[in-house]
């Protein structure tokens, strides 16, 4: 039992960091004229009265984009471009310190411009309430807790909701409080922010909706915040599953789609409404100016929206509209530096054109072992988004002619009984035969199964070879290991030469069907062997627990020449994949590399 394991801090170089994720929401310093709140009451009256109130088609739409702080002031330039593509939602906000630079002094001009321009483009706002003004923070910065007086927070929330309640209805509490944007923060402090914001907002606007929010897919933090007092004070949940998106290129669709059911199980376990709306309020992928990189971003965007909608997320926001350029012009933006559209922007516009503002998920269909198809009722009938989740060949044929649309918007008819080849790049198929729609309907409530159903299995396994053979267990980022041949038998060897010490780790995930929310007792067995003639070697087991990622004790691999099985029994598992993996071999303290042959995970009563 590893309940005394050391809690791990977020690593600097794991799955989500393998692809540079440089997202900043720290507002650049700008010079703003400060005005008294009473000086702009005429503008406030239009926001509060509902003169720019959301329209139903606008608010029902799932299509959102988020913007970071660096390009926030360019909203007047990118909002019309987004609106032209059919985007109906923008996640954006002015920081608390901008709106209230000093206690009792209000500067509404920047937020008036932001909200007014969104309304002019018929774009609804998801408005995060963050960060601290220096005069209210613990150390004079904008991130450090505790807040000097919670009344400051109540006053701020009340003032901003009073001003904009005719236009803004959805308020996300903080941005990634469990990440790097709340120094000294904890679930109790966050629960207080949520509770007090809800009370203050709903006192003014009973129709205001409060969003509980978390970086990545940290369900454990959400649970602890709920238990600390947030229960009953939020109306929807927001997640930022960047690490889950990273898994999709390696066939991680099942893991991405399991997020919604995990959240609903968590809510039900706390006797809360498990039908609450779920939002992905940030997700994105970095692209450079290289065509291959931009094509990858386009694929990931398409799959993020399709899988999110198919699994039950109500709204999805791609981060971001126009991204700040880092090295090699790499950023998350849909628009390049010169505001020309990337393939990802065209893919989003194509999605919206085909599916419309009220896409209804019908169900999934399969093409061979790895071909996936997701059927929606769209703007002008039924549409299937299809792709291949592996490198194996897959194709679909139809008994009647269909129309094939690529993510670049190009179209071509496909005759009956002629195959369409599926690759990792999604395609859209419309004018579907009735038989395909009926097949999809029958699978509506079934989880997608990319190889097998593990919900009733007693154990799941993985054999590490040149090509791994998994039954319910996957190796994440196999590049941290290399193939080793020993007397004609293959296994994998940790590769200490991999940059950033990543070769000291081997990462694994378990099928969400086998470890649904609430699975606590597991036994993990790993078959390992020292390299011939090597000195001592060993490792610890890091795993995802109810307290976050923790480390179980280090064990030395016996010096015997045959394979050794090392086993850990844990009773506080919480395998939700916050950072994209569930457990890992941690050989950072090992003097030598060693071989890994098999992994087995068993459920215990």
TrEMBL record:
<dbReference type="InterPro" id="IPR017853">
    <property type="entry name" value="GH"/>
</dbReference>
<dbReference type="GO" id="GO:0004553">
    <property type="term" value="F:hydrolase activity, hydrolyzing O-glycosyl compounds"/>
</dbReference>
<dbReference type="InterPro" id="IPR051923">
    <property type="entry name" value="Glycosyl_Hydrolase_39"/>
</dbReference>
<keyword id="KW-0378">Hydrolase</keyword>
<protein>
    <submittedName>
        <fullName>Glycosyl hydrolase</fullName>
    </submittedName>
</protein>
């Amino acid at each position: 039992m590893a309940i005394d394991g050391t809690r791990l801090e977020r690593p600097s170089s794991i799955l989500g960091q393998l692809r540079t994720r440089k997202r900043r929401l720290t507002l650049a310093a700008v010079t703003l004229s400060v005005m008294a709140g009473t000086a702009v009451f005429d503008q406030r009256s239009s926001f509060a009265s509902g003169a720019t109130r959301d329209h139903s088609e606008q608010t029902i739409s799932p299509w959102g984009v988020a913007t970071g702080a660096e390009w926030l002031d360019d909203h007047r330039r990118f909002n019309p471009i987004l609106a032209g593509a059919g985007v109906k939602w923008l996640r954006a906000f002015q920081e608390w310190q901008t709106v209230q630079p000093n206690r009792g002094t209000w500067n509404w001009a920047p937020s008036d411009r932001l909200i007014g321009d969104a309304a002019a483009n018929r774009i609804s706002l998801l408005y995060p309430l963050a960060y601290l003004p220096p005069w209210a923070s613990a150390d004079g910065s904008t991130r450090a807790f505790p807040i000097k007086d919670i009344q400051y927070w109540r006053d701020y929330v009340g003032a901003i909701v009073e001003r904009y309640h005719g236009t803004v209805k959805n308020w996300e509490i903080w941005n990634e409080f469990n990440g790097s944007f709340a120094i000294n923060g904890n679930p109790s402090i966050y629960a207080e922010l949520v509770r007090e914001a809800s009370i203050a907002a709903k006192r003014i606007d009973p129709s205001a909706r409060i969003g509980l929010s978390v970086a990545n897919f940290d369900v454990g933090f959400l649970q602890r915040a709920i238990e600390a007092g947030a229960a009953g004070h939020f109306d929807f949940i927001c997640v930022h599953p960047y690490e889950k998106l990273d898994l999709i290129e390696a066939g991680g669709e099942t893991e991405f789609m399991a997020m919604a059911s995990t959240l609903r199980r968590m809510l039900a376990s706390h006797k809360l409404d498990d039908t609450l709306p779920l939002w992905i309020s940030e997700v994105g992928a970095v692209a450079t100016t290289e065509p291959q990189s931009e094509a990858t971003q386009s694929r990931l965007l398409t799959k993020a929206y399709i899988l999110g909608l198919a699994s039950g997320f109500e709204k999805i926001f791609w981060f971001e509209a126009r991204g700040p350029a880092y090295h090699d012009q790499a950023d998350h933006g849909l628009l390049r530096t010169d505001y020309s559209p990337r393939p990802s922007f065209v893919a989003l516009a194509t999605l919206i054109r085909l599916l419309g503002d009220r896409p209804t998920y019908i169900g999934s269909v399969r093409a061979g072992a790895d071909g996936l198809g997701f059927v929606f009722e769209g703007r002008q009938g039924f549409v299937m988004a299809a792709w291949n989740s592996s490198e194996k060949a897959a194709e679909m044929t139809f008994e009647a002619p269909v129309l094939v649309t690529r993510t670049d918007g190009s179209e071509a008819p496909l005759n009956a009984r002629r195959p369409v080849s599926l690759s990792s790049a999604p395609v859209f198929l419309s004018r579907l035969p009735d038989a395909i729609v009926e097949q999809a309907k029958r699978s509506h409530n079934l989880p997608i199964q990319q190889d097998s159903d593990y919900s009733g299995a007693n154990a799941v396994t993985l054999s590490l070879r040149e090509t791994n053979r998994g039954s319910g267990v996957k190796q994440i980022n196999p590049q941290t290991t290399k193939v080793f041949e020993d007397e004609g038998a293959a296994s994998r060897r940790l590769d200490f030469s991999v940059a950033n010490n990543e070769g000291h780790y081997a990462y694994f995930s378990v099928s969400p069907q086998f470890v649904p929310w609430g699975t606590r007792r597991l036994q993990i067995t790993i078959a390992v062997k020292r390299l011939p003639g090597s000195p001592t070697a060993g490792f610890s087991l890091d795993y995802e627990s109810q307290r976050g990622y923790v480390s179980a004790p280090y064990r030395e691999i016996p010096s015997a020449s045959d394979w050794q099985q090392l086993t850990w029994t844990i009773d506080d598992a919480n395998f939700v994949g916050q950072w994209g993996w569930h457990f890992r071999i941690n050989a950072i303290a090992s003097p030598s590399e060693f071989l890994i042959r098999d992994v087995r995970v068993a459920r215990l009563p």
